[in-house]
Amino acid sequence: MTTRTQEPYPAVVTGLGMLTAAGIGAAANWHKVTHATSPSGVRRPAELRDLPTDFVYLIDGLDIEAALDAATRRLTDRFSQLAVLAAREAVADAGLDPRTWDGDRVAVVIGTANGGLPVYDEQHTALLERGPRRVSPMLAVLTTGNGAAASVCRDLGARGPSLTVNTTCASGTDAIGIARQLLRAGMCDIALAGGAESSCSRLIVASMCKMKGLSTRRDDPAAACRPFDADRDGFVLGEGAGLLVLERPEHARARDARTRAMVVGYGTANDAYAPVAPHPEGAGAERALRAALADAGVRATDIGHVNAHGTATTLNDLIESAMLRRVLGEHPLVTSTKAMTGHTLGAAGGIETAFTVLALQHQLVPPTANLESPDPDVPVEVVAKEARPARLECAVKTSLGFGGHNAALVVSRG
């Protein structure tokens, strides 16, 4: 999907909201990834005790009871709660006040892969062990994929277009691209867009263990996720939310808003190849990236940085890096921030686009944590060990998802 017949359109990024295993808030996340210390939220939940991978990355120090009232907690699953908190931060960061904005002109587009699926796991266990009387009457409400978008709309009084995107691990990236299209079409003035996910349940982890996608480095879980490393053996599942406030340029100018960056290009494409494995030549990812570049009206040589999907699985890292070299050449500085946040599935694109915005704003590329022995078959320059200062005008965020979904964004300095 692209808009080659239209003039390039910059959606202005005025606010960021982030919660991940690397920290609570955009500032804390940025500090953590640029210093490449261990994730704060490495956990070994009791329900994972006998699985080949018994650890996940969760948000450390988050007090949901203090942050949300009892009614909101009762009517929302955890992934929706994370979305609400990220949205509040993003709106405050943008200098917006939901009490005074025109809610009819505010859109919400949130991506997720699993939505409230962990609640199904809990409730099915309750049904089997304690009978139908113990099943929650709110099951249908708590498990719908649109829960995050609906909850953010209620919390902030956003009454414009409200969409949920599920393109698995590309969901958050697609959500931002779609929100930009809504702004471009004049359907809203403000859009909250990104992703939210909390899927660290026994059922999901057990399935991913069988799929051989997760790292089994149980002796050192904080260093288990090793994108682009020769010794990588899979990703670590994480939870989180990353939302951006996007605005029409004229709307941001009218209120004299600070501009963090601009989303200037979007492309999306499917491999039409396999349910799980990416196309062996990265064909869909390449089409998505080339479409994003065309949509932005920029050349490959304009791209100075790529926040890659970088899952630390053997296939993804090799296929994605080869595709990046083919399309962008050898000059962009590549990083994967999943070693710090874990793979947050549908939230990943939102979180990692926020990191891309911060890289442009600070003119600094975060290192890829745990990258000790770079894979010699990876043909791009992956930043390791220390954050690297760089002159950056444009950057790319790429996402590859189960089902062959691929998405890419081009982000430029504000």
Fold and architecture overview:
By secondary structure, the protein is α/β, with parallel strands linked by helices. The chain has one domain (11-413): 3-Layer(aba) Sandwich (Peroxisomal Thiolase, Chain A, domain 1). The chain contains 14 helices and 16 strands. It has helices at residues 26-35, 64-67, 70-74, 78-93, 117-130, 139-143, 147-156, 171-184, 202-210, 249-254, 283-296, 314-328, 338-341, 348-362, and strands at 11-20, 23-24, 42-43, 56-57, 106-111, 162-165, 190-197, 240-247, 261-270, 303-307, 333-335, 364-365, 381-382, 388-389, 394-401, 405-413. Strands 1, 2, 5, 6, 7, 8, 9, 10, 11, 13, 15 and 16 form a twelve-stranded mixed β-sheet that branches. The chain has a two-stranded antiparallel ribbon with strand order 3-4. The chain has a two-stranded antiparallel sheet with strand order 12-14. β10, α12 and β11 (333-335) form a beta-alpha-beta unit. The relative contact order is 0.19.
Secondary-structure topology with pairs:
Layout lengths: L10 E10 L2 E2 L1 H10 L6 E2 L12 E2 L6 H4 L2 H5 L3 H16 L12 E6 L5 H14 L8 H5 L3 H10 L5 E4 L5 H14 L5 E8 L4 H9 L29 E8 L1 H6 L6 E10 L12 H14 L6 E5 L6 H15 L4 E3 L2 H4 L6 H15 L1 E2 L15 E2 L5 E2 L4 E8 L3 E9 L1
Parallel strand pairs: 5-6, 5-7, 10-11, 10-15, 11-13
Antiparallel strand pairs: 1-2, 1-8, 1-9, 3-4, 7-8, 9-16, 12-14, 15-16
